[in-house]
């Protein structure tokens, strides 16, 4: 118990220090790491079925070779479904936004552009009489958010009625910032897109059913036509 308590007392501040001070979000050009993690999850997931096979072997006096065979079978099924059904490396075409966006809209949404990612231009702006440029750093997007230029671009884009600025509150720079992280956007946008697509399909089907069930309009009789 003493060693467990000492380990807990060390790990709690250590993990918080590593998470808050030493680590930060990193960008990758592909989803290879995420795909490897998904495939690796097949190993612990298969143990659940292997545990069931273990207790079934004890109850029915089967050989214990059923346990590793069940584990390998579950792992194979998981990897086959993930590789050929889910296909994590193949990005769906309908998840991409086909709408043409402007340069100001992209850099307002992502907080970075050619200027604040160029260290020489940032340094030159601080050494000359021109307006200083705040450098962009991953994990410190709030520095750009508090910049007056960013707020001006955000207000301008929201006034134009773009798709990015549809929040009801006027405090756009305070409420939209957490949703503008690419990882959070991808996590939230896909379920929303799926629900929207399902609702549109249901509405279209209902409209077609109503149109098919509605009786044809009967011709109106003109009482003065025969006179």
> Structural class, from secondary structure content?
mainly alpha
Mean pLDDT: 75
Distance between the termini: 108 Å
- Kindly estimate the percentage of residues that lie in beta strands according to DSSP: under 5%
Largest sheet: none
What do you see in this structure?
The protein is an all-alpha fold. Helices cover 61% and strands 0% of the residues. The chain contains ten helices and no strands. The protein has helices at residues 2-22, 32-40, 42-60, 66-86, 103-110, 119-127, 142-145, 148-159, 172-175, 182-213. Helix 3 (42-60) packs antiparallel against helix 4 (66-86). The radius of gyration is 29 Å and the shape is flat. The termini are far apart. Residues 163-179 and 219-227 have low confidence and may be disordered.
State the main characteristics:
single chain; flat; 227 residues
Quick structural summary:
The protein is mostly helical and 227 residues long. The protein is built from ten helices and no strands. Helix 3 (42-60) runs antiparallel to helix 4 (66-86).
Give a topology summary.
Blueprint: H1 2-22, H2 32-40, H3 42-60, H4 66-86, H5 103-110, H6 119-127, H7 142-145, H8 148-159, H9 172-175, H10 182-213
Helix pairs in contact: 3-4
């Amino acid at each position: 118990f003493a060693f467990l308590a000492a380990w807990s007392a060390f790990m709690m501040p250590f993990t918080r220090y590593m998470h808050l001070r030493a680590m930060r979000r990193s960008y990758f050009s592909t989803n290879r790491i995420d795909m490897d993690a998904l495939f690796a999850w097949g190993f612990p997931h298969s143990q659940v079925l292997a545990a069931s096979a273990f207790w079934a072997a004890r109850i029915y006096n089967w050989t214990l070779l059923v346990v590793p065979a069940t584990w390998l079978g579950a792992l194979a099924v998981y990897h086959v479904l993930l590789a050929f059904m889910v296909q994590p490396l193949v990005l769906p075409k309908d998840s991409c936004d086909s709408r043409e966006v402007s340069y100001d809209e992209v850099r307002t949404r992502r907080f970075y552009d050619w200027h604040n990612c160029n260290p020489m231009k940032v340094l030159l702006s601080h050494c000359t009489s021109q307006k200083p440029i705040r450098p962009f750093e991953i994990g410190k997007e709030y520095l750009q958010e508090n910049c007056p230029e960013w707020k001006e671009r955000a207000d301008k884009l929201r006034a134009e009625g773009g798709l990015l600025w549809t929040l009801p509150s006027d405090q756009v720079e305070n409420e939209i910032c957490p949703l503008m992280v690419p990882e959070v956007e991808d996590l939230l946008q896909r379920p929303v897109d799926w629900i929207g697509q399902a609702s549109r399909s249901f509405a279209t089907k209902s409209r077609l059913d109503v149109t098919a069930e509605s009786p044809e309009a009967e011709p109106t009789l003109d009482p003065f036509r025969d006179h």
